[in-house]
Design a protein that fits this description.
single chain; mainly beta; Arc Repressor Mutant, subunit A; Methylamine Dehydrogenase, Chain H; 3 domains; five-stranded antiparallel β-sheet; 5 helices; about 45% strand; globular
Length: about 700
């Protein structure tokens, strides 16, 4: 599609290299995905007019059947690459209803050749592909597209595949709709009972619940001292296996019968394991359970006979790994599980037979994230990866993205009869909490703020918070929020959404993130400097101790680097390799290495001491804070627990705690004294227990 394009084309502020398939701006290079590159080439070729969605289907996707959603998603990726996400005030790509899309930036080639539409129009069919054949392909495409539209219009799908396949089915029935949080769903084989762990009706401790779908009855089951974390059905659905953590985070496994007596029995045979996860029933008397041996960093799966209490390893690796979420196939012959390699953070889907033989080892991802999955059939698996769903064909290892509606099926269980049960989360406004740091799960203040408030963080002033809000005119506001009076004062407003990142106690500059770019804002003069481009996907950064420069992390060809930006000279330099975060001290730095360990570095980057080494289930989504002389680290496990650490640089005193998913948040702020924490429970969700139908054809 780009064979006749000049090697370099100027698109506004960007240089488009059609040979290297990349955009560049101010020394920053953005490598384009293949389809994003094809789309940009076509829009450049036809920049003098609007290009319709149907034309993009035919020309860029070459008549292959894809949904409009897939095309629009590629357009969104192009907007993100160009840093042009404000569709109301576009700078590069304009959308016009019923007309389509058009590049509106200045387009200049590096030669004197005029960019005429004829020059770049795709060639006509050759004698090897007569026009009649091309017409036939187009007719087949239209017929298939009409069939797809008919099925969608008929309400056939709950989800639709981003590339045209038909996936989930009709709107589910709401079984349970209560205030609170529900996690770790399990279902009996006959689908009558659903068990989960939850915090319902403003409870601040986690409880075990059993829902009877036949009687429409929810029952809370009192557990032994501690917090229930995992639950599953065992013993031919006559009992529950419950993993409970005490205050010292020691895990124990209990059995409880479903007869209503709520008598718990401790499961023997697991005393040699320091860490326990959820149990998975293999048959009436056998379970798999995850555990960590003393002195080991690896989580393996073990097979336990509930009659004899015999325990044997089921998975093993000489490399440090985490094997989690085992799941028995519908025919009962295979076990699928997720393996994370702790050395490089790669995530794999592994298949075993009942004799512990590894049948398949499929690379899923090279980055951290939240994962859940279930078997659709003996050949297919439905995977949740962060906020996305994928359908995996185990024979071909092909993966198809699945699109969801506003309701998010955070955890789902697929049944053989074509139905599914799920914990469904519906997006509501955020809830903000203030508590002591280190945090043990008990907050002091629950802020009652308007739904438009998107973020609250500590400022350098005592009793004053930074608050990001949206007014009635759709302006995004950065405000000071005074805790004592509740009064606000606006510091900055913008039409395009932004996030507050950092401030310096003596500098007037504030660091903001907007559309994937870091931006400096002078709160006195309102002057702005763009620090990074959107396609670098940089969202974090810190000021140096003197406030004259910024330090920010970015990935290049899979390797992490710390970059330094000098504010006065508007220049960048590569500062340090193989680190994901860097916080300045007066005489050195606190750093997160690529392997997630946290180190104290000298001024010349020598490792003075290692403060934290990820162990057992830790290491995902690491965030580090430096307040006074206290270093705080927040990580997430593969099973999505939050693990909290603090280390006092003067006294070497340590603290470690663990909090279940949804009791803490991704957006965290710690005050300058290191004694209080602000957090939101992500985007607060309305939780529902639902059941519906699916049809994957």
């Amino acid at each position: 599609m780009s064979s006749q394009l000049p090697a370099q084309i100027q698109l506004g502020e960007f240089t488009f290299d059609t040979v290297q398939r990349q955009l560049s701006l101010a020394g920053t290079v953005i490598v384009l995905e293949p389809k994003v590159y094809d789309l940009l080439c076509y829009l450049v070729q036809h920049s003098k007019r609007f290009v319709s969605l149907a034309e993009l289907h035919q020309q860029v996707w070459a008549g292959r059947v894809v949904t409009d959603t897939a095309v629009r998603r590629t357009i969104s990726k192009l907007r993100s690459a160009l840093g042009d996400t404000d569709t109301d005030q576009p700078r590069y790509l304009k959308t016009q209803m019923k007309l389509g899309y058009q590049l509106i930036c200045e387009v200049n080639a590096d030669t004197s050749t005029e960019l005429s539409e004829n020059q770049f129009t795709d060639k006509e069919p050759t004698k090897n592909e007569p026009k009649a054949a091309a017409d036939k392909k187009y007719s087949l495409f239209v017929a298939a597209l009409l069939l797809f539209i008919f099925l969608v219009a008929a309400g056939y799908f709950f989800f639709s595949d981003k590339s045209g396949s038909k996936l989930f089915a009709a709107q589910p029935e709401v079984l349970l709709d209560v205030d609170g949080v529900m996690v770790n769903l399990s279902q009996s084989m006959d689908q009558r009972y659903l068990a989960f762990v939850g915090q319902l009706n403003n409870e601040q401790s986690w409880q075990l619940y059993l829902f009877d779908t036949k009687q429409n009855l929810l029952r809370k089951i009192a557990t032994p001292a501690g917090q229930p974390r995992f639950v599953s059905f065992i013993a031919a659905d006559t009992e529950l296996a419950v993993t409970v953590f005490d205050q010292q985070q020691k895990a124990s496994l209990y059995r409880v019968k479903l007869d209503g007596e709520d008598q718990f029995t401790s499961v023997a045979g697991l005393t040699g394991l320091e860490m326990l996860t959820a149990a998975t029933a293999l048959d009436e008397h056998t379970i798999l359970i995850g555990g960590v041996l003393p002195g080991s960093n690896s989580l393996f799966q073990y097979r336990l006979n509930l009659l004899s209490n015999d325990l044997e390893p089921f998975t093993y690796s000489q490399q440090p790994v985490e094997d989690a979420l085992p799941n028995l196939s519908p025919d009962g012959n295979k076990i699928a599980l997720l393996r994370r390699n702790l050395a490089d953070n790669k995530m794999y889907l592994q298949l075993y037979d009942r004799h512990k033989n590894l049948l398949q080892d499929m690379l899923l991802a090279t980055e951290e994230g939240f994962y859940r999955f279930d078997w659709l059939s003996d050949q297919h698996i439905l995977l949740r990866k962060n906020q996305y769903l994928e359908l995996i064909d185990l024979v071909t290892e092909q993966r198809q993205p699945v699109e969801e509606q506003d309701a998010i099926a955070a955890e789902f269980i697929l049944a053989k009869n074509g139905s599914y049960s799920a914990i469904q989360r519906i997006v509501k406004h955020k809830q903000f909490y203030l508590g002591p740091w280190p945090y043990s799960g008990q907050y002091n203040t629950h802020f009652q703020l308007a739904s438009a408030v998107s973020a609250v963080t500590f400022s350098q002033q005592d009793g004053v918070l930074w608050l990001t809000d949206k007014d009635d005119d759709a302006n995004w506001l950065l405000q000071h929020y005074h805790l004592a009076t509740g009064q606000r004062s606006t510091i900055f407003s913008a039409k395009e959404r932004f996030n507050f990142v950092a401030a310096h106690k003596t500098s007037p500059w504030l660091l903001l993130e907007q559309s994937g770019r870091l931006i400096l804002l002078n709160q006195n003069t309102q002057q702005q400097h763009v620090v990074t481009t959107a396609t670098q996907a940089v969202t974090q950064g810190v000021f140096s101790t003197d406030g004259q420069s910024l330090l920010y992390p970015a990935q290049l060809s899979g390797q992490w680097f710390i970059y330094q930006y000098q504010i006065n000279t508007n220049t960048h330099q590569r500062f340090l390799a193989n680190y994901k975060a860097l916080l300045p001290l007066d005489d050195g730095y606190i750093a997160i290495a690529a392997d997630h360990s946290v180190e104290q570095l000298t001024a010349d980057f020598a490792v003075a001491r290692v403060l934290f080494t990820p162990a057992q289930l830790e290491g995902q989504n690491s965030r580090v804070f430096l307040n006074e002389n206290r270093v705080s680290l927040i990580t997430q496990t593969t099973l999505s627990d939050y693990v909290l650490h603090t280390f006092d640089l003067d006294t070497t005193e340590r603290f470690q705690g663990q909090l279940p998913l949804d009791s803490f948040g991704d957006e965290v702020s710690i005050n300058s004294q290191g004694t209080q924490v602000l957090f939101s429970t992500g985007v607060n969700m309305k939780y529902q227990l639902v059941r519906g139908k699916y049809n994957f054809n």
